[in-house]
Amino acid sequence: MTLATQLLDWYYENARDLPWRQDKDAYKIWVSEIMLQQTRVEAVKGYYQRWIDRFPTPAVLAEASEQEVLQYWQGLGYYSRARNLLAGVREVCAAYGGEVPEDEQLIRQLPGVGDYTAGAIASIAYNRRVPAVDGNVLRIFSRLFCLESDISKQATKREIAGLLHRHMPDSSPGDFNQALMDLGSMICIPRRPRCQVCPLSNLCEGYAREVQDTLPVRPAKKEPVLVQLAAGLVLQDGKYLVRQRPAKGLLAGMWEFPTVELTGGQAADRCLTAVLWHEFGQEVDVGEEQFHYIHIFSHRKWDISFFSCQWLSGNGVMKEGQWRSLTEFSNMPWAGPHHKVALALAES
Ligand code: SF4
């Protein structure tokens, strides 16, 4: 039997029952694949269902505001994915009558869509024989063919895409790609692959040479940079002082409480007092730390303390910031740990 036959036989017996597999709607596959980038399947399920209930088609999503879209994405992180998805469906509505195009080259040109996502959509929704190479496939093929080159290198990715294409069947290419996704999440997992129950163990060179645990080869991981932050919770007339982050960069456009980065061991109370006066025009007395969170992004680690601040006067010039009530909090997309604080304040 060929690799494809063995894999597909296993898949038809063991495929995961996932909400986005109910039909072969290209838009739904697109949404699920974008959500699944950097996020676990179990975590995505709830978000996906809420999203599809609210935005069942590209046309409905295209009409939504960015703020609402970010709110539905809140908690998934990497918000540029949501913005790109919105821009992508708007393009699909403007250029393709609301239908995701079948040609993977055209899909690939949509905002935020890379080779992997284009391959997944084209193969699963339209049965096109296109590889979808993600971290799962790189890991599985490194082990299957005992490849010792760094999987972060383009040359290795090209080599694996070539191998994948060669082994891809003419019929059911979408099932083949999905079978690899399932094998990667259930059997050929990152640590301690379950080779004894793997449908491909008789073909696997890494397993035969007992080096499967050492593969794939990756570059050394860099530690995220620690960023010390202090945020002020300023309440005045039943409203909190908040601001929207800049339109570009980390957590772009999300809401936060006034925040300052502390460098070189600066005192949080003095920095907050200064920032709240100079940037927000508010005179405050910084009090006790009320919340403290560590939030890890891919390259940064926020160590953020939230201080309750007593409002004294607001005579300065408000360069930025707005006053928002607790009832408005639930309609605002919040930046990372600020969301936890907003929820806690709204529930208290
Ligand atoms: S035999 Fe082991 S290493 Fe090889 S593909 Fe299967 S699970 Fe992965």
Question: Care to describe what's here?
Answer:
This protein has 348 residues and is α+β, with helices and mostly antiparallel strands. It folds into two domains: 3-214, Hypothetical protein, domain 2 (Endonuclease III, domain 1); 225-347, Nucleoside Triphosphate Pyrophosphohydrolase. Helix content is 44%, strand content 16%. The protein contains 15 helices and seven strands. It has helices spanning 3-14, 26-36, 41-54, 58-63, 66-73, 80-96, 104-108, 115-126, 135-144, 154-167, 173-186, 205-208, 268-278, 326-329, 337-347; strands at residues 225-236, 239-244, 255-256, 259-261, 283-296, 300-313, 322-325. Strands 1, 2, 3, 4, 5, 6 and 7 form a seven-stranded mixed sheet that branches. A hairpin with a 2-residue loop joins strand 1 (225-236) and strand 2. Helix 2 crosses helix 3 and helix 8 (115-126) packs across helix 11. The N and C termini lie far apart (62 Å). The mean pLDDT is 94. The structure holds iron/sulfur cluster. Iron/sulfur cluster (SF4) binds at residues 140, 143-144, 187-188, 193-195, 198, 200-201, 204, 206-207, 212. Residues 140, 143-144, 187-188, 193-195, 198, 200-201, 204, 206-207, 212 line the site of iron/sulfur cluster.
